[in-house]
Task: structure prediction
Amino acid sequence: MIALIDYGAGNLTSVRKAFAAIGAEVFVPAAPQDLERATAVVVPGVGHFEATRVLQGAWTDAILARLGEGRPIFGICLGMQWLFEGSDEAPDLPGLGVLGGTCTKLRPPAEDRARGVAPLERIKIPHVGWNALDVRSGAPIVDGVATGTQVYFTHSYAAPITGDTAAVTEHGAPFAAIVQRGQVAGVQFHPEKSGDAGLRILRNFVQLAG
Amino acid sequence: MLSKRIIACLDVRDGRVVKGINFEGLRAAGDPAALARRYNEEGIDELVILDITATLEGRRALADTIRAVARELFIPLTVGGGIRTEADAATAFDAGADKVSLNTAAIERPDLITTLANRYGSQAVIVAIDAKRTRGAGESGGDSRFEVFSRSGRAATGRDAAAWAQEAEALGAGEILLTSIDRDGTKAGFDTAMTTVISAVVSIPVIASGGAGALDHFVEVFTAGGADAALAASIFHYAETSVRSLKQYLRQRDIPVRL
Result:
């Protein structure tokens, strides 16, 4: 059973529906000790990095314990950013730190204004909508996902491109859209809202769980 | 590159999809779940379910319709019409909505925008603005003034659409759904000048709505209008234009779309 962690950062209905559609069993743990029966852990979430504060302490310990046993973990959107060392959005708050690097804000419209970019040419923040993946690795999480595939994003901060980056997307500047390092994987976009491509990536994660 | 989104709107009353002209004279057009399925197969980027009579009649969002549509759909789903309170929004989210669209309630209780943005994230809160050109507004858009109307386009608020869009963004709205009352249902084209004005003053995405009647109307609102997305209903419902052929037309004109 895959544990879907509900830490109050957004609505989980769509994520649950998507896992149900691919035949994966999901439960929402009420407390960190419930993670003991998890075959895999999914950290979803939208909104401000500050929302991840409740994951510090017992949740973090339980998640790291599962990871130590070889159970895979999957971060979605804010949940993926949390896998990194932290985010400029809440500088005092550390992330899980299983991936190297810090999340930063996408290029803000004020910068375009200062550079004299015409109003209708400025990139908009948040980055909302369908954008293309540039697949950069043969990681299992991107199995069957081709460069040019479009997925649905909605975010203002993003993770840096590192050796763990499996796919890149560009909005103002390139950022990590999909990451994988061993049993740790994540996506900046919403696979539960990205049609067949999104469901494919969720299936790839479920495969990691074995 | 970020694609321009094509959004289909299902105006729903009593569980059936209807579409009016200038918000009046509603015509029946079909079953919401069946239409949603068809649009999804054709490659629609997003769906909006709008309970069009909810505000007038004080009815609540149609949770059963949302559930029926959300069951098999893995693209963003927005619900609007009759979202008056935090509890109404919670009902819509629990039924499977990814975003709610606030209109009259946001005008009367702007703090609802912030409350919902804090709880569900700004990406889940769309502020819908129904606006009309005031007398003397020029086609150029330069000196145009666009007035906000509430209550399904019936009540003039005396507020300027650009100022309200900026305020909504500051309060936590994640997107603006801008509908031209003058153009709604006319198929005379989007109000591109109005879309340009609003797009230039906010940094959040603007969805243009009202008046889509031809493929070139979409080209115009995405280029001259600076819209991030365009919403239409009747042009798709009556199968006058398929979503796929519209997107192919846009791609041929170098407008980025998801195909």
Observations:
- Chain B has one domain: 5-252.
- The radius of gyration of chain B is 17 Å.
- Chain B touches chain A at residues 1-5, 40, 45, 70-72, 74-76, 93-96, 98, 120-124, 174-175, 196, 199-200, 203-205, 226, 228-229, 258 (CB under 8 Å).
- The domain at 5-252 of chain B is CATH 3.20.20.70 (TIM Barrel).
